[in-house]
Amino acid sequence: MDANEPFLQMRGITKTFPGVRALSNVDFSVRRGEIHALMGENGAGKSTLIKILTGVYPRDAGRILLDGRPIRPRSVAEAEAFGISTVYQEVNLIPHLSVAENICLGRQPTRLGKINWKAVGARARQALARLEIAIDVSQELSSYSIAVQQMVAIARALDVSAGLLILDEPTSSLDETETAELFAVMRRLRDQGLGIIFITHFLDQVYEVADRITVLRNGERVGQFETARLPRIQLIAKMIGREPEALVAAAEPTAKIAPAEGTAFLEAQGLGRRGAVAPMDLAVGRGEVVGLAGLLGSGRTEVARLLFGIDRADSGEIRIEGRRTVLASPRRAIEKGLAFCSEDRKTEGLIPDLSVRENIILAMQASRGPLRRLSMGRQTEMADHYIRALDIKTPSPEQTAGNLSGGTQQKVLLARWLAMQPRLIILDEPTRGIDVGAKAEIEKLVARLAAEGMAILFISSELEEVVRNSRRVIVLRDRAKVAELAGSAIDEQAIMHAIARHETEKPSSGGPA
Amino acid sequence: MRIAIKQRHIPLAATALVLAIVYAAAAMKFPGFFSLRVLVDFFKDNAFVGVAAIGMTFVILSGGIDLSVGAVVGLTSILIATLVRDHSVHPLEAIALALLCGSALGAVMGCLIHFQKLPPFLVTLAGMFFARGLGFLVSGESIGIKHPFYARLMDVGLPLGGAATVPLTALVFLAVFAAGVYLAHFTKFGRTVYAIGGSEPSALLMGLAVGRTKILVYTLNGFCASLAGVVFSFYGQAGNPTWGIGIELDAIAAVVIGGTLLSGGVGYVAGTLMGVLILGVIQTAIAFQGNLNTWWTKIAVGVLLLVFILLQNVVSRVSVRPGGAKRRPAAAGKTPV
Amino acid sequence: MRPKNPHPAGRREHGAAARLFWPLAALALLLAFNFVFTEGFFRLEIRDGHLYGVLIDILNHGSRVMLLALGMTLVIATGGVDLSVGAVMAVAGAVAAVLATKTNLPFGAVLAAALGISVVAGMWNGLLVAGFRIQPIVATLVLMVAGRGIAQLITDGQIVTFTDPRLVFVGNGHLFGLPFTVTIVAAALAVTWALARRTAVGLFIECVGSNETASRYSGVNVRLVKFLVYAFAGFCAGVAGLMAASNIKCADSNHAGLYLELDAILAVVVGGTALTGGRFYLGGSIVGALLIQTLTTMMYMRDVSSDVAPVPKALVIIAVCLLQSPVFRGQVSGLVRRGVRRLRPAGGKAS
Predict the structure, then answer these.
(1) Quick one: CATH architecture of C52-303?
(2) How far apart are CA A408 and CA C85, in angstroms?
(3) Do A139 and B4 touch (CB under 8 A)?
(4) pLDDT of A149-158, one tens digit each?
């Protein structure tokens, strides 16, 4: 067997779901003894590719070769039989069972049908030893930190099958020390000949530990690179699909409004939360559009959650109109005039059983309390208004919201918050899933709202959108603020460079605590 | 790495403590309490609840619930009685048939719950209605079991030196207990039950035989419920379709007081045994007391349930993972309905 | 120029009408069956200015479950469940009976006390669920067990008979020719409807059940909503308990409301409200309760022992669950599609 022949080869993988082409002729290969990072922004197709590899989805076209042999895994168990195991972000183990049991669950050594617990413990210790870890395997899994739980998950994955290990966003919940330990383990395994697929969006980590990088974008493979030979700026460019050199000055921005004078409407100083974002400063003025830019996972939504009172901050304080405020809950935040149009509309935004009308008036009604019910006439009026204003494609306001398309749902959610006429609105990916024409409408709307005095925090992963609409841009990377750009200094180049800037200019606040 | 605290053992420790306190209090008040005979009587008098509770432990450990237990007790007893009296079937065969019936009902419910993804609460509720009504279809009134074999069974017992003999019913209880402990801690089936209750999605991802195990759990519980009915029929030397009303509640209470989380995944069969004993001690103590009426048992059980539920709540809140970088869905878990 | 209210105030109501169809159809089917096959089912006669007949009996006997179902609907709509309503019924009856016979309290005070205690019981459940975030099934189990004991404590284990004519009227009197219980149910339905639809409470309940997180982020006071529905369920249980005790002119703490919570849950589910919460249908729950009562009465009239009546109830539960289950519906529509395909003439679409 040719030592250079890749251990895993996926060729021409295509997968279509109703209405969307998830993967288009994607090639992907992993060598033995390699850590290979798989990267891509939202909708790039990473998770679909992995699910095809691990047997969760069948592929529409293409081949998978393992050690030169074609395979067609039809279930997770089959994939495991081939030697392909996955460790997920949520550590899919059983929290209240012991470490040893979690490692051996389903395959406990038995003697005449009776589980041999001593052998279970021994086997578990052996599996962990491979990672050079020694812990008390008789303790409950949940009594250990996430980092250790992940090690246990890895040990189990290897115990079940050992050829290819897929780590799906393993470092999201780890701090720096724990990440370093994980990387040490990964290197050890790699040196033992294991192939590791490392899915992550943390740039620094990729450069620290990955041998090669494959970038996906919109279901296609953008490229496969040797990490050592790929400058960061190039990587970022590949991921967002813009060439750094070929940047034309964006179309005349619609929202470069004259700077609003006076104190900011909302000021945050040293705002941070362990495991979410490092302490940072942030301010949004009345009539000002402040953009929050960064790659997926950089902490943008985490910041929004802190500002809206969904999560409690560990450090720092927030001032609204100069007065110190504690935003302990969304209700508090709404009382202060804040609004939050969430990016995760399914879990956090839309009420699927309710109609479009009811979704739109919900926040308004909630702020009025249960007794002062909005009359039906008023509700219909509001609903009709926003259906027209945002061009919400629905047969009627009584349509059940859960049946609408994603983009339409997004607009309904936006309408709900606009109806509150807040003083500050946080828009988290407001144009996701919305067609181009509608995007322009929404941007015009944002500009008009700002002109009328609303403070707007505009979060988006699309750089040109952020650039076009913001007067100031705060750039995040790896859960920390790395730069703040204002006025004419704002362009995509600058943002990308801010993200790419290396250790030598690490932000003063350090990584997430 | 933190030193691990066995937080999940706290409810079990609490149960043992409560049992000790309750028993000590009763023994101090009533000197007669502290005797081997009374102890044996506990096992004898609570055998049927105990057997049912052990089956229920597995169901609850898997994250489900079974409301049909009481109805199956009544159905089993009347089935045996009818077979013996009206069809001249030997009691042993009748017992075997009845056990088969109970297990079959459990299996059907398990299939509906797993394959059709129907909520266990409603399915077993239907099972309860069905079994109860079926019992009455078999016979509208109680039927005595007058068979020499049955009468002899009451004499079967294990002499324990001293003055006490452990009767058959208590032996059955102990046997079921032992089998329960073995199943739970030494078989893959048992460990899969714990895994399903702990996190069904994870169990699925780990490749465990979730479907088969779930169906088996309900089948096993059906078996235990009908065994409880058999034991009941030993006591009464009869079958009666009205028997067993409320046993499912007693079983659930014993399981919860025994430290098993109603959401599943955590608990011990030994805990259930202690829970049954606690219930038994309370009941006996109240009966001994004479001037306290039986409803105090219900109130006491309710209070105990509350205490344990609050305790479980606190414990499960505390053992949530530190860090919390991962966004957790804020809604509390849905009921195991 | 847009007309003022182009969309009729209810595709919502249309949706409700559609959801109501199946339980109504089932009820109609049942009634039709009885019309043909059961002697005297539809016979009505007037005596002393009051209407009597089997249909009236159904309304009368079913009134308790209907009342419980009203409160239970709101609880289930928030994604919860209340197992304690039967026990609370017993408590309410016990309080009323004891106060009426052992004290000189005016009727109004007796009523207030019984209902007050029921509301407190409901609030207790609400505290556990909304305040301590305990699972509803677990939280209400406590009161289900202890409540009956408390009721027995209040009546000292006896059956307490009372003769106060006003108390007796509640369960036995007649108004406008119909049993008073029917009036009570109608009033309760009206009150519940007003509470749910004329205020925003119904909207809040539906969103909490449909997506609790999104509701909270939109500023809905989720805890208060949950607390209130349990308190309301307690109130409904109190009224039902008074009706039950009044009907037999005594408080029987051992049997009052026994297992009625299960019938109430069944009525709600049959009526179209999903057990997981979200949209609720008060009318549907009433129809569901009527369906259950009709079944029971039908069996009784055909000399089927009332003890066997649970069997068809069981089949109804399973049938309803299956119909509501997406897995089952998927299987059935798959079967139907395959059957249709097979019926198509050859030369059509190859499968």
Answers:
(1) Orthogonal Bundle (1.10)
(2) 42
(3) yes
(4) 989 999 999 8
